[in-house]
Design goal:
homodimer; 8 helices; 10 strands; 7-stranded antiparallel beta sheet; oxygen-dependent coproporphyrinogen oxidase
């Protein structure tokens, strides 16, 4: 059982509302494609773990006709980081207590012309309090028009908030979503930001705008591409590309590491992995 | 260009000979199944990397009817470990120079009744000189008979060598091939040993016996199972199981980490990944 202060409760409420709106929109897209696929929701909690202060989350998962596999997780957890890990977390070196609430979304799409996507925003409290997050587009078959629209949506979200800094956040995504052992980017980028502390209201407003930007642009891209025909060769390319995606998430992704190190729910943490991937 | 001393040259020659014999036997199995699949060999070298002292290897890869994807790599490399990484390697904390020669094999099989397998033996030289290696069986659909025969072959290899210690090496494999975030073993085990230093001839003899044990038992298991019929449900189980295999290799495997940290050939390092894997 964890007790939330006013900021923590406000952040959690936003992440849960955003989840509801995104899932409803994705189910609407499935209807438009003639499918009756729905999200299934699986709650999990850490209250039976004596080393955790508790909390938990809800893993949302849909396997549809357009969305081959899409996971939307919200979680709100508290506890203490283990010793060595605490030293790597902002504000936790002296005191390992933490609170975290956030939303995390990964969509792997059936049609290789439709981009896959990742979005995650979160509010962390250690001896510091900050927001972090971002979104990045992962098209197996990239279209310049889609990349441009995706970047434009997040530029607008940054530009209309005093806490936003688009050039810095875009570069951060370019630097972060990089697979060093392959020397390639994971996708075509987006924005990434972290340790946004200080003015809670300003940082929270940016984080809400990032969520709204996602909700506006991604369904547009899906509807633009979901009816396109594709070949076996397109699918081969998609599955190879998903192998790179899995490599990034398992070898480099800090969110995955955070989940594994803090005793999160393994199915929720690894829902980011593609439904099918190949290594030639 | 690296210059080998007598022990290094002897170890390398053994690994290359073992590779030739294993690849010939696997190709014979393909013939028995009516396939004309052969290994293709891709050499790579580090001589153009100014930070490496050089060396390289040969990546052998076959995609056949029985062996859906099998990689057999030999490599012989020298150089200096990077600072932080050196501290994690036996005998390299004070002086980061190293030499390594070894064979590494991973076979992913088309028929889910046929076990996948991993085998790797190596000779390392830092300020210490040692052999390491092992083999473990990874059946998507385990058979007690196969597990028993596999373990018996490596027990015999250990028992007939003074450097062998089967109970210890078997437990080492059980401890090593463990996926902590899933709380399951990667497969049904085998043997694992490392830092076997001191008597070069005795340790080399054990390492040769381990190679002979592999060459004797694994083809037997393949021939026992390769003709069995299998269902779609068997394949579903095989592909999910391969997801766990990929997770282990990308998150935990020290050999994979060693390769990525020492600038090895990325295709050779990641040849261990399954041809197709799923995450439900």
């Amino acid at each position: 059982m964890i007790v939330l202060d006013e900021e923590q409760a406000a952040a959690r409420a936003w992440f849960e509302t955003l989840r509801d709106r995104i899932c409803a929109e994705f189910e609407t897209i499935e209807r438009e494609a003639g499918s009756d696929a729905c999200f299934g929701y699986t709650p999990w909690n850490r209250d039976d773990d004596p080393e955790a202060k508790g909390g938990g989350g809800v893993q949302g998962l849909m396997k549809g006709k357009v969305f081959e596999k899409v996971g939307v997780n919200v979680s709100t957890v508290g506890g203490e980081f283990s010793g060595e890990f605490a030293k790597t977390i902002h504000g936790a070196a002296e005191n390992p207590s933490f609170f975290a609430t956030g939303i995390s979304l990964v969509a792997h799409m059936a049609n290789p012309h439709v981009p896959a996507v990742h979005m995650n925003t979160r509010f962390l409290v250690t001896q510091k309090r900050w927001f972090g997050g971002g979104a990045d587009l992962n098209p197996p078959l990239p279209y310049e028009e889609d990349t441009r629209d995706f970047h434009a949506a997040f530029k607008k979200a940054c530009d209309e908030n005093e806490a936003g800094d688009y050039p810095r956040f875009k570069k951060w995504a370019d630097d972060y979503f990089w697979i060093p052992h392959r020397k390639v980017h994971r996708g075509v980028g987006g924005i990434f930001y972290d340790h946004l502390e200080g003015d809670f209201q300003a940082n929270f407003a940016l984080t809400r705008s990032v969520g709204e930007a996602f909700l506006s642009v991604f369904p547009t891209l899906v509807r633009r591409r979901m009816g396109m025909t594709f070949t076996d060769a397109d699918t081969v390319q998609q599955l190879e590309w998903r192998g790179r995606y899995a490599e990034f998430n398992l070898v480099h992704d800090r969110g995955t590491l955070f989940g594994l190190k803090t005793g999160g729910n393994i199915d929720a943490i690894l829902m980011s992995l593609p439904p099918v991937a190949t290594w030639a």
